[in-house]
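Q: Structure tokens for this one, please.
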Amino acid sequence: MYQSHRQFLRNSVLALLLGLLSQLSVAAPVVTEISGVDGAKLANVRAHLSLVQAEGLETVSTWRLRQMASDAREEVRGALRPFGHYRPRVEVRLNEPERDDQPWRAVIRIEPGPPVTVSELDIQLRGAGSEDQELRQWQADWPLPVGSVLNHATWEAAWRSLVDLADTRGYFDHAFEQRRVLVDPDRDRADVTLHFDTGQRYRFVGFRSEPLPFSDRLMQRLTIIDPDEPYTLQRVDEQREVLARSGLFDRIVVEEERDRDSGTVELHYRLNPRPPNSYRATVGFGTDTGARLQLNWIRHYLSSRGNRLDSGFGVQQSDSEFVLRSEYLHPRGNDPGDFLTAGGLLRRQQDNFRFNDESRREAVFDSFSGSREQVELRFGRLEQRLFWRDRFQSLEERLFVAVLNESFDAFREARFSEENEALLAANPELEPFLQTETNTLSLGAEWRLPNISGTGFFTQGHIAEARVLAAHESLASDVSFAQAYVRGRIHRIFGDRHKVMLSGELGYTQADVTKLDLNLDDRFLELSITELPERYRFKTGGDRTVRGYGFETLSTNRNGANHILTASVEYEYRVGQNWSLATFFDIGNAFNDWNERKLKRGAGVGFRWYTLIGPIQVDVAQALDDIDTPWRLHFTIGTRLL
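A: Here is the predicted structure, written as tokens:
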């Protein structure tokens, strides 16, 4: 009997050990199937479930899997509460695999049940900000009205946005008197209470800075915030942007120093003046212009008043052209973006008086080569107005008086061919157009609105420009005209490889046109010449306009015209880190008769390589309205002439 008792005890212990080992044995991975919820609710449930986390484990004990299945009900309930479901029905079943190489299956079925809704809402704003329109708008936009489903994420985001808004509006002493949500899950209702005391609103009291090489008047001019102005964070950002746009500093820090007793904010400028001079030299090349060189010098401040000088010199191989320009800006009034301006431009180039027919590729007669000189003085006002406050983009407006002296002389060098001499002898009325001098006093206005961000391929945004200009013989001008011009360019990036570029320009001029009927032997040409000075005439065609045609070869008789109309669409696909392929379609022309526009079309493909010296652009284009011409290569490096 004693032997039998010992045998029974040994078998019992063995059975217990085998049971424990079976619970501690290693199981294959688990697969969790969830039904009854979707979208954000499903995502949150999966994020809370231990069973889902176990799917990423190579092995897990059977005992642990069963424990996870037991915990799943509470985990699901916790995951659904933020969405207002406090009484869900949850069924969990853990299925053991039939074979060792199969995973365990956890099947979870959920019935969320009716959500808790907001039954009572008590939101109160107290203190100085109770009448603030921005805070009242926040209250009007409260996202959990009576009858809505209680969403805890929405609740938390709403009260946190109130805190952020109060801080940006200068209510730094704010506090919640009450902030709670009382949930009655048995009745599926919730009471929301939020009492917010804004406290006092702080006000700006002025600024201070370390000693600077600028006058107090200039620093006051660069400060756009008035003393005793109510605080807003946006105004601090605008102030920082104004200091940056002044071009006077290479380090800008604007700190806020608050005084709770007085409820004021003093701005502390920590500024490092930039070196007074900036120099820049750039080189480029284009099939239109040949080699190019530009030299720029900016004197950022000539004195402590902040007046500055911007000068540049440019020369290009095509037509032996050079340009010298300079502009002086003098601060005006108290607006940091308001200047009086005085500028000058000197341009000289070898130019041709041409005899081209729109319907023919070759010139009807030999052109007359001459020297063209332009001297222009401008006096006016530049004002920079903040246009998009949230983007700190400003509209540049220039109002000016321009004095232009322009001359063209084909007789000075007298390099006439025999055909030139014969044409001139047969058509003496042509002579005044080969030796001209025009003086013009014009009134004008220009607007420019840039909004650009990014570099290289990822440059995007838009630029819009407009100009009006007028002169009259009764006001010391040799010619009378009125001109309006608009131009725009848009770059949009889609994803990280696709870019679409749209551009267009439209110009219209009211100016007299002279028509000459020229003939020589059996050749005849109706020549149309606008009285506009060359500087104000429109031309198009070339690397940056209507591709497929030569540089500035599109205009009436190729001598410039009164009107212009162009448009372009281009698609660019980024292939490598710094290079891309492009395809494009251009259309446009410059013409004297608006009723005979004869728009020319060009299309082609191109290559872009973005480098430190600027983009390298290679385009191969076909002139669609001149199919007898071969494909034209357009190649540019860097920027164009001044």
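A few notes: Residues 31 and 254 are 56 Å apart (CA to CA). The radius of gyration is 38 Å.
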